[in-house]
Amino acid sequence: MIVYPNSKINIGLFITRKREDNFHDIESCFYPIEWKEALEITLSDKVGFSSSGIDIPGNPDNNLCLKAYELLAQNYDIPEVHIHLEKMVPIGAGLGGGSADAAYTLKALNELFKLEIENSALKKFASEIGSDCPFFIDNQPAIASGTGTTLDTFELSLSGKWIMLINPGLHIGTAEAYSNVSPKNIDFNLKEILLSTPIEQWKDIIQNDFEASVFPKYPELQKLKSLLYEKGAIYASMTGSGSTIYGIFNKKPQNIHLDKGNVWTGMLK
Ligand SMILES: C[C@@](CO)(OP(=O)(O)O)[C@H](O)COP(=O)(O)OP(=O)(O)OC[C@H]1O[C@@H](n2ccc(N)nc2=O)[C@H](O)[C@@H]1O
Ligand SMILES: Nc1ncnc2c1ncn2[C@@H]1O[C@H](COP(=O)(O)OP(=O)(O)O)[C@@H](O)[C@H]1O
C-alpha cells in the first residue's frame, strides 16, 4: 500500500502557558497543505524501515513510522511489515513532516489489516507519538489547543488561494524553540478572528509567538517574510517553530530563486 503524507502550516501560534510536565499550552490553527511525501508499506518477514530522498538525521530504528507500527503492534495482532519512505518535506521545518508520516502509518495499517479503529482512537495513539501527530488523522483545518492534541475542526476555507513556502535549509529543533519563549495568555478567540476578519487584516492581529525568539537569532527569516509581502502576499508568517516561512497570495506568485534551501508553491484546498 502506498500513501502520501502531506504537511501543515500554523496560522497563528500563541504559546499561552508552560505546564508542569514541561510542555506548553498553545492555541493555533493547523491547516493542511499539499507538500507531500510517499510512504510504502509491504508485508515482510521482518519489521524494517528504509528511506530515500532527503536524509533523515538519527537512527532509522527510531523513525516515527516504526514508532507508529510498534504502537499498533502492542495493541493488535498485526503481521510484520517493511516501511519505505521517500522523504520530500524538509525536516525541523515547522511543517510537521515526521508527524504526518507517523499518522499516515497508523491510518494505512488500520486500512491494510482491516483493524476498524475509529479516528478518535487513532488520534489517541497519535498523541503518544507527538503533539502534531493527531492533526493528520482527520487532516482538516482545526484549532489546536492544549499541547496541540486537542483539535476543534472548523470550516476555514482558503481554497483557491496560493501559497508559497520558503525553507532556507535551517533545522530548528522544536524543544529548543519552546525553551526560548515567554508564554503569554491571550484574551481573544482565534477561531472567531479567522472566521470574521478578512485575510488582508490578519497580519495586524495573528502572529506566531516563535518569531519573537527565532527571528533575532536568524535575521534572514525576517527578510524572507518581508520578501513574501513585497511579492504580493496578503498574509505571511513563519510556520510552527520554523524555519519555513510562508506567504498566502490571491494569485500565483512569481518564483523566487534561493542559493540554498527550497521553495514550494501550490494552491490551498
Ligand atoms: C511547534 C509545533 C506547532 O505545531 O510544531 P513544529 O514546529 O514542530 O512542526 C508543535 O507544537 C510541536 O509538535 P511536535 O513537533 O509534534 O513536538 P513533540 O515531538 O510532541 O515535542 C517535542 C518537544 O517540544 C516541546 N513541546 C512540544 C509541544 C508542546 N505543546 N510544548 C512543548 O514544550 C517539548 O520540549 C517536547 O519534548
Ligand atoms: N519520518 C520522519 N521524518 C522526519 N523526521 C523524523 C522522522 N522520524 C523521526 N524523525 C526525527 O524527528 C526530528 C524532526 O522533528 P521536528 O523538528 O519536530 O520536525 P518538524 O518540524 O518536521 O515537525 C528529526 O530529528 C528527525 O530525526
UniProtKB/TrEMBL annotation:
It holds the Pfam family GHMP_kinases_C. The active site is at K8, D132. Gene3D superfamilies: 3.30.230.10, GHMP kinase, C-terminal domain (3.30.70.890). Transmembrane segments: none annotated. Keywords: ATP-binding, Isoprene biosynthesis, Kinase, Nucleotide-binding, Transferase. Its EC number is 2.7.1.148. It is an enzyme of class 2 (transferase). Catalyzes the phosphorylation of the position 2 hydroxy group of 4-diphosphocytidyl-2C-methyl-D-erythritol. This is 4-diphosphocytidyl-2-C-methyl-D-erythritol kinase.
